[in-house]
Design a protein that fits this description.
Radius of gyration: 29 Å
Order of helices and strands: HEHEEEHEEEEHHEEE
Shape: elongated
Number of strands: 11
Helix content: 25-40%
Largest sheet: 6 strands, mixed
């Protein structure tokens, strides 16, 4: 049976309709992509700016981690909660048999606040020419794992150039999961758990120290015991008041 003329017409009509639909879809997709570029989503020229902000996060994050280590898991210290030795202020994490080792989420909050307070200061030092820059509120988040610390920041930054707006918002810095030639891992979560175990046991003997997979040094200082946990060149110091052995 041959194909009738009417059937041929239907096929031609369907072909034309499909072609029109294809063209419409293509144009819509092209318009959306163009809109995304215009509306700040995609701009390969912003990679350098993203790298600058991430560099700031690395500097601030590492400074915060160092401060957390020197002050026994705290950035801000209240009066009568720390031991002063020369220029150092070392938190008491054990007082009168009470364990004062901060919870992981408390340290995360301290680091997040430290990041928020210092990030915009660091970023403003860069010259974002030829962009005009507008900053929004910084929403930081810190995650402390046993062997890694992750900093994430939601910070909408709108850059304007030639009446076109571009937007960056999500930034991330994380300490290495493994030791490398240039960088070493910071096992902060693991170290804090060790500090908690030391305080729970009302100090440790030299034999007990050998059971841990970190270096622990401690010394008497007046009525207190000063502890320093060292791991991969990272130091975590704290004091126990009236340590009973």
């Amino acid at each position: 049976m041959g194909i009738k003329k009417g059937q041929i017409t239907i096929f031609i009509t369907l072909g034309i309709v499909l072609f029109i639909i294809f063209v419409i879809v293509f144009l819509v997709r092209a318009d959306l992509i163009g809109k995304l570029i215009r509306e700040q989503r995609i701009d390969p020229n912003l990679k350098d700016i993203n790298a600058r902000v991430t560099s700031c996060m690395e500097t601030i994050g590492n400074s915060g981690l160092e401060l957390i280590g020197l002050q026994g898991g705290k950035v801000t210290l209240r009066p009568d909660t720390y031991l002063s030795i020369e220029n150092l202020q070392i938190s008491y994490l054990g007082m009168h048999s009470t364990n004062l080792v901060p919870q992981i989420n408390q340290i995360e909050n301290e680091l997040s606040l430290f990041m928020k307070d210092n990030l915009i200061k660091c970023a403003e030092e860069f010259k974002f020419q030829p962009y005009e820059v507008k900053y929004s509120n910084i929403i930081p988040k810190t995650e402390i794992k046993d062997d890694q610390v992750i900093f994430e920041v939601n910070w909408p930054i709108v850059l304007t150039k030639n009446e076109k707006n571009y937007k960056l918002s999500s930034f991330r810095y994380e300490t290495p999961e493994k030791n490398t030639e240039n960088k070493k891992m910071i096992r902060l979560g693991h170290i804090v758990n060790i500090a908690r175990e030391i305080v729970d046991n009302l100090c440790v003997t030299r034999d007990k120290v050998k059971e841990f997979d970190v270096n622990i040094d401690y010394t008497n200082y007046e009525d207190d015991i000063l502890y320093i946990i060292e791991d991969n060149d990272y130091h975590f110091a704290f004091a126990i008041n009236k340590c009973l052995q």
